[in-house]
Amino acid sequence: MSLRKLAGNAEATVAVDPVMMQVVKNALDSVAEQMAVTLQYTAHSTVIREVLDFATALLDTDGRLITQSAAAPTFVNAMGPTLRFVLEHAAPLNEWQEGDVFLVNDPYLGGSQHLPDLVMFRPIFWRGQLAGIAGCVAHHVDVGGTAPGSYFMTATQIYQEGLRIPPVRLYRRGELQGDIKRLLFANIRLPDYVWGDMEAQMASLRIGEQGLIELLDRWGPATIGANIEALLDYSERLMRAGIRRIPNGRYRFADRLDDDGVSNNPVEIQVDLTVADEEIVADFTGSSTQRAAPINCSVSMTTAVVHYCLVAAIGADIPVNEGCFRPVRIVAPAGTVINAVPPAPVVGRMATLHRTCDVVNGALAQALPERIPAAYYGMSTTTMLSGLGDDGGMRWVLFEIGVGGWGGSSLRDGLESCSAQIHNPANTPIEMIERLHPVRIERYELRPDSGGAGLHRGGLGLERDVRLLTGQGQFTVLADRMRFGPYGLAQGGDGARTEITVNPGAASERRLPSKITGIALAAGDLVRIKTTGGGGWGDPKRRDRAAVRRDLALGKISAAAARDLYGLEE
Amino acid sequence: MPAMSEANMPEVTIGIDVGGTFIDVVVIDRAGGIRADKVLTTPADLSVGIMQGLEKLLDGGLSEALAQSRIVHATTTATNALLQQKTPRIGLITNRGFRDVLEIRRHARPDVYNHRLELAAPLVPRDLRLEVDGRLDPKGEVLQPLDMTEVEARIAALLAREVASFAVCFLHSYARPQEEQRVAEAIRRMRPDAYVTCSAEVCPEFREYERTSTAVVNAAVMPLVDRYLARLESELADAGYARDLYIMQSSGGMMRSADIRRFPVNIIESGPAAGVVAAATIGRQVGRGNVISFDMGGTTAKAALVHGGRIELSTEYEVGGARHGAQAGGGYGTGYPIRVPFMDVVEVGAGGGSIAWIDEADALRVGPQSAGADPGPVCYGLGGTEPTTTDANLLLGRLSADYFLGGEMKLDLPAVERAMSERIAKPLGLSAEAAAAGIIEVSNALMVRALRRVSIERGRHPADYALIAFGGAGPLVACYLAEELGVPEVIVPPLPGVASAVGLLGSDIRHEFRQAFFGNLVSLDLTAANALLARLADDGRAVVRASGVADADITMQALAELRYVGQAYELRIELPAPMLDAAALAETARRFHAEHKRRYAYDIPDRGIEAVSLKVTATGRVGNPAPPRLAAAGTPPQPKGRRPVHFRGLGRVDCPVYEREQLALDHAFGGPAVIEQKDSTTLLPAGWRLAVDPHRHLLLSRRKSA
Hints:
The complex is a heterodimer of chains A (570) and B (706).
Chain A lengths: L1 H6 L10 H25 L3 H4 L4 E6 L5 E5 L9 H12 L10 E4 L12 E10 L2 E11 L28 E5 L2 E2 L1 H10 L3 H29 L1 H24 L4 E9 L9 E10 L2 E5 L15 H16 L13 E4 L17 H19 L13 E8 L5 E9 L27 H7 L2 E9 L13 E8 L3 E7 L20 E4 L7 E2 L3 E8 L3 E5 L14 H9 L5 H6 L6
Helix pairs in contact in A: 2-6, 2-7, 6-7, 8-9
Chain B lengths: L3 H4 L4 E7 L3 E8 L4 E7 L5 H12 L4 H6 L1 E6 L2 H7 L6 E6 L5 H4 L24 E4 L2 E2 L5 E3 L3 H13 L4 E5 L8 H13 L4 E4 H4 L5 H31 L7 E3 L5 E3 H4 L9 H16 L5 E6 L4 E7 L2 E2 L1 E2 L2 E3 L16 E3 L3 E2 L2 E3 L5 E5 L5 E7 L18 H7 L17 H16 L3 H23 L11 E5 L3 H12 L3 E4 L6 H6 L4 E12 L5 H20 L8 E11 L6 E4 L7 H19 L8 E12 L20 E7 L3 E9 L8 E3 L2 E5 L2 E5 L3 E5 L5 E5 L4
Parallel strand pairs in B: 1-4, 4-11, 5-6, 5-9, 9-10, 13-23, 23-24, 30-32
Antiparallel strand pairs in B: 1-2, 2-3, 7-8, 11-12, 13-14, 14-15, 14-20, 16-19, 17-18, 21-22, 24-35, 25-28, 26-27, 26-28, 29-30, 31-34, 32-33, 34-35
Helix pairs in contact in B: 4-9, 6-7, 12-13, 12-14, 13-14, 14-15
């Protein structure tokens, strides 16, 4: 491996032991974390700084993930495969030069998930030789295409979703490639905004570069290289030890998306999980064939989901790196929604990602009933309200992600409206939204009766009313769980389903489907968003009576639910 | 006019630092004579322990000494009240449709792989969060007025539920605090002895969740803190104390007890702040403006940075939770966020009592589990069976079995050797000595990470700083940490074990007043900005004057929270002048670009800069006593003995052991050596040289060749 080669015979002794490995691990993690702080605190878009839709990493010159900092595990497998693609098909190692910055977003060329995720790499040279690669990925507010914000929920081909960028050098030897930047700017909305976020990404790459160089100066490439190998093996051992705690067997589970955005046909995801000692195979054969609709996924997402669900189920503190993936094999037939091929559109892949998470958890719950909760809200209710100028051009965009309740578990009730499972978005302060955009948030509450009934109740979803105050707007929705609610377990009830309504109670009232682009809104129109609660766990009739009465007193369940679902008599 | 604070300077200054296990009391007289002692904390009534500590230290002359003294106090009362959930019943009045803001939080969670994550229950349950009509817009315009009849009905409903402390929070109240105040007045009218907190009073800034949470935390701790301080004030007065009692705030400035009783949210990190003030004071005494404060105790280690004599502040903090200062990711929920000025302290869960263990993939780990004080490390012989870092230090010869706490406690070395062998060394295939050295290395790696966070991750290079090491365990590892970070110098204060209490003696009176103020720097409404700065300055000066400080001893500092247009996180930038004009704005912009570049390694010179709030800090300098001076001995230092001690890279080395008390101004020597004192042990590795300064600090410097 390259760091060892780099070291040559200069270092006679190489320290690899359980102690040095921890020292190197802390140092590497610290670099990735510092990269993340820079990106998050200087980014311009709410998507990065509030929704935390980004990740930073150090990789080796074989394209292996060494360490990563991410508030959300969604990106766990985004950078390694992308870098390997770049190395194999675009620019072999010997063509990388100091000061280069590579840019790529094509989900069919490695690990990017959809076009708004711009992946960037910067080589790290130590004493004139390539020693590693800093990488980061972040979700941008717009990359062109038919719909503002590049969320075209009725796309039938990826060409409608925005600019598809194969690996290109945005910088060559430290020189900005103006023609690339101009090409980019000509194809996207709000280019200055996007550029602000790209600058934050590039700053974070430089931080990563400095950080690894300092480590190499301190310890030398042989010691760092050998301990990186030890760390990958260490993560692999932890994964294997964890998998060993899952009873051997085959576990199957299936669940559905409401529709695909273009047609009303539900999308089926199914998994057949085989646990054999310390290895696991997740076979998604039988899942729906890919759609001419934007809910398709690249296989890197499917891998990320399986990885996330396993680590969370095992409940161990496992450093995230390439070693984690070794004991896990994914079978995902090409041409299905969980491993789509071009030109399938992918921008709404989040829906499939969440449902894949539900099915893997559903299978694991059969193996580990004490550990795995009932279904969480099951989809981030993603909405985009954009304001239009007189010329029809986009002037502003309010991108929001609504979460919901956690599923109840063998231990306790689900959390009320909190980010769950594979992603981890934050909300944007109302006082910031009202200052930036001509909208008023008129209500922001927990949604009573939305948690699935159970011995341990599902957490509550949310209700939010948003009014457009002036001008013309367009409203886009990427949601799900309007037809099939989050499942309960062990006799627990399902969580309430998503509802999105324009002007509720008025003559112009209109219920929206779960995936739709470009609903015209006029000044004064109000959108009501109700998100899902989590599934319940266990028989609601056995729920502690005091807990039922407390939920009733707090207005979290209605009197009717207390009586009919929980059997509360009085 | 005579300099009042000089006239006001007491004969004796007393620092009282109340921690979880001990109350540290330090007394220093005008000549610099210093005495310190510890008494056990009395959790049921802290004032009992405090009076015991004072009597112990001032025996015979308590009332006489108190009559001539000023007392500065750091307390964990507010934090403990929250963490132990001993808060009274709180009610919240807020806008219709928004009572759940407190419970919904910010959605993001701190620990993404944990299916069993538990969040702290909201301090106000849902049925005590009541809503009223009325709405403001972001500019403070009234969109819908309050209906006072409805307001009074809600107050009556909360009073009927025996609510003792009220929080009031309306959307956009930072732009117009009057609506909240009308509700507060109504509460006081209906129940004159009620505790009331208005959100815009404790946090006049935007972001409704954080402001509501700050107000609710203030409301939650106010009754307890108020009663505690009232009792302490009266007991001190009965014992002869004549001045105002001062309390250390989380920002490192002290505030009169009377003011703290209204805004107790400011003292959440009172104790750790005192430690950082101590480091800044020590830095001043030895002529170092740039220092890193490193405080390592039994269960945690805390790091903070002082640059140019100034302590770095942050406003992001979560009481009892995961989030503190700028860090990647998100996720409140395991504690209670508050937005007031805080020392930017980074804490890691590793200290002398941290337990070493081997995980299922055969890696050596240290902490976050701690043996605490009971049973404590194996060497205490109180039933501890799992090796800790203290045990590792004993096994390596760095600690003496016979001189722990000055010999008050015998340590059990054979028990440590057995535990180390069985639990760590054999499973890893190492010798007990190598295992112990490994434990220290892993623990140090965690410390280095905390120190990196306050320095490198904030754009500060450790090579430009001296490391001030204190806490019982700090001086034992400081030189090795310094080597990892490239820090050239380590300073160990005279009393490392009670350094935080000593820090209280070096603090100033400080009040910060702030207000949300939005605008792009190039088009800033200067008239409005200056009117606001003038008002904040008047408020600040008035409250410091009220503490009896003369105008000549008051310094004002104007600041702005700034960011590039489009960003969401601000940087705290000092304004070049108390009032703004075109030139001052240009300089402010220059400072912002420079700070952004320093902190994040880039700037965007052509991007607009916007303000989100203005602040004024009023600091009242009080006459603080000079530290004692040390004389030369005229004779070389004599070790009190020798013993084999394990040093990194050298193994066991027979090295001299010195008694700290016997080191004099003209003493200097190189490592390897050990310096022992009652409350701490300093390890001087090879390649390091020790000198003693006139204020009895140990100055440890790294030889260039090392």
